[in-house]
Write a structure and sequence with these properties.
The chain has a six-stranded parallel β-sheet, with helices on both faces. Strands 2-3-1-4 form a four-stranded antiparallel β-sheet, with helices on both faces. 56% of the residues lie in helices and 13% in strands. The protein is α/β, with parallel strands linked by helices. The protein folds into three domains: 154 residues, Beta Polymerase, domain 2; 144 residues, Rossmann fold (3-Layer(aba) Sandwich); 67 residues, no CATH class.
Length: 435
C-alpha cells in the first residue's frame, strides 16, 4: 500500500456500488442529472461546498477533499439518506467510506474501468467526466478536486493506450457487434434484418443500433408480435411474405423465431446471396434449436454464428480483459503514488516559500553591510544563515530530555536537508575503546 500523505487535507469517498449494496438501495440513491444541483445544495447545507457526485446504474458516490479528522463522512451520509428517503441506520451498512490513499486508488480504478461489473467497459470514464462537468456547472469543483480529477484522467488514458483492457467482446451482443464490424467495417451504411421476436434478437439489435447501425427492419408471421420492438428500435416492420426480398437487402440477419424448424433454408439464402452479387452477409442464429439450416454455413459469402459461437468469443474476450487488468492495475498504482507524492510536495510549499524569503532577506542585508566586498558579503551571509541552526543544534545536543535516538533523527534530517556526508563519530564508543 502507498504511504499516506502528511497533509491534513484528504480525499474522501462515500458511496454504494454493485458490491456494497442491493439494486433496490442503488435505485433509491440514484441521482438524475436534473437533480445533481439539488444534491449539491443538500451537501452545501451541511458545509460541503466542493464535491463530485457520480451516479450510474452501478454506483452512487460522493467524492470530496476535506480536512482529516472532521465529520465530513457523517454529513455526506446524512445527505444521501435524505435524498433516498431512508434513515441513516438503514443506509449506513450499505455504504463504503474510503479516505486518503484508499479513496484515490478507488477513483483511479473506477475511471480506468477496473471497478466495473464488466472490466474494461469504455462508458465509465465518460460518466466520470460528465459528473465532473455537472459538478463544475454547480460551482462545486475547487483547485484540489480539479487536480485529483486531472490526475485520474491522465492515469485512465494511460490504461487505455498502454493496455488492451477495452478490447475483446464480453457479451453475446458485443461479440455480434465485433463480428459485424470485422465483416462490414462502418455499420452506419449497413442494413439489418431481424426475423422473429426473440429476446436475444432484440438485445443484439439494440447493441447494433448503439454501435451506429441505422437501417433495421423487423419481420414476423404475426406483425403484432414485433410492434413494441419496432417502437423501441424506431424501425420498419416488413411483411413476412417478403422475407426473400428482405434477405437480398440485409447485410446482417438476426434469426430469432425459435419455432423448432428452419426459417432460413440453404436454397433461400443461396438465392439471396446470388442476387446480392455475393456481397457477404452475417447471419446470427439466436434460437435453440436453430432457425438457420446448417447447410447455409457452407455457402460462399454467408458467415453463420450461433449462440455457442458467440459465447466462445465472449468468454475469450473476458479472459483477455482479465489478463490486461493486471497491467492496468500496475499503471493505476503508479498513478496513485505520483498523485500522493504531489500532495506531499505541496505540503512543503509554504515553508519552502518562507525559507526562500528568509535567505533572500539575509542576502540583501549582507550585500548592504559589506558594500562592494564580495568575500565579506558571502562570509556575513553564511554566518547569518548558520547562526540560528547552530544554536538550535547545540541546544538539542545538550538537552538532557533528548535521547541519543532523538539526536540521531535531528542529525539525519540536517544531513538530508543539506546533502551532507559526514561520518558520525560515536563519542561514547570511542572513549570506551581508548580505555
Amino acid at each position: 500500500m502507498v504511504a499516506t500523505s502528511i497533509d491534513t487535507r484528504e480525499v474522501l469517498i462515500v458511496g454504494a456500488n454493485h458490491r456494497s449494496s442491493s439494486m433496490g438501495i442503488r435505485d433509491r440513491l440514484f441521482v438524475e442529472d436534473a437533480d445533481i444541483s439539488g444534491m449539491h445544495k443538500k451537501l452545501q447545507a451541511r458545509g460541503i461546498y466542493q464535491a463530485l457526485i457520480l451516479s450510474t446504474c452501478d454506483r452512487t458516490e460522493v467524492t470530496v477533499i476535506h480536512r482529516s479528522g472532521d465529520d465530513t463522512a457523517t454529513r455526506i451520509i446524512e445527505a444521501l439518506a435524505e435524498h433516498a428517503d431512508m434513515s441513516i441506520a438503514e443506509l449506513a451498512n450499505q455504504l463504503y467510506v474510503l479516505s486518503n490513499v484508499d479513496a484515490v486508488q478507488h477513483i483511479f480504478q473506477v475511471a480506468a474501468s477496473l471497478d466495473s461489473l464488466v472490466i474494461g467497459e469504455p462508458q465509465v470514464l465518460g460518466q466520470v467526466k460528465a459528473a465532473h462537468r455537472l459538478s463544475r456547472t454547480c460551482g462545486a469543483v475547487g483547485s484540489d478536486l480539479e487536480a485529483l480529477l486531472q490526475s485520474t484522467y491522465e492515469t485512465a488514458k494511460r490504461v487505455r493506450t498502454e493496455t488492451n483492457i477495452g478490447e475483446g467482446p464480453v457479451s453475446l451482443a458485443a461479440a455480434t457487434v465485433q463480428l459485424a464490424r470485422d465483416l462490414h467495417g462502418d455499420l452506419q451504411h449497413c442494413n439489418a434484418l431481424v426475423v422473429g421476436a426473440g429476446d436475444m434478437g432484440s438485445l443484439i439489435a439494440i447493441s447494433l443500433r448503439d454501435a451506429g447501425l441505422q437501417q433495421i427492419t423487423l419481420t414476423h408471421p404475426t406483425p403484432i408480435r414485433v410492434e413494441g420492438m419496432a417502437r423501441d428500435l424506431n424501425c420498419h416492420v416488413a411483411p413476412f411474405e417478403q422475407l426473400a426480398d428482405q434477405l437480398i437487402e440485409a447485410d446482417i440477419v438476426l434469426a430469432a423465431m425459435g419455432r423448432r424448424h428452419h426459417t432460413m433454408s440453404a436454397a433461400l439464402m443461396a438465392g439471396a446471396i446470388d442476387k446480392r452479387r455475393h456481397k457477404p452477409v452475417l447471419l446470427i442464429d439466436t434460437s435453440l434449436p436453430g432457425d438457420i439450416e446448417p447447410a447455409v454455413s457452407r455457402l460462399d459469402d454467408a458467415f453463420v454464428y450461433d449462440l455457442n459461437d458467440l459465447e466462445h468469443l465472449a468468454v475469450t474476450g473476458r479472459a483477455d480483459r482479465q489478463n490486461e487488468a493486471e497491467k492496468a492495475t500496475a499503471i493505476v498504482e503508479m498513478g496513485v503514488r505520483r498523485y500522493m507524492r504531489h500532495c506531499a510536495e505541496q505540503t512543503a510549499a509554504p515553508v519552502l516559500t518562507l525559507l526562500h524569503q528568509h535567505f533572500e532577506s539575509e542576502r540583501q542585508l549582507a550585500l548592504k553591510n559589506a558594500g562592494q566586498d564580495a568575500e565579506k558579503a558571502t562570509r556575513l551571509f553564511m554566518n547569518r544563515l548558520l547562526h540560528m541552526p547552530s544554536e538550535v543544534l547545540r541546544e538539542s545536543a545538550a538537552d538532557e530530555v533528548v535521547t541519543l535516538e532523538g539526536w540521531r533523527s535531528v542529525e539525519t534530517a540536517v544531513k538530508r536537508l543539506f546533502g551532507l556526508n559526514i561520518r558520525v563519530v560515536d563519542t561514547a564508543n570511542q572513549e570506551e575503546g581508548e580505555k
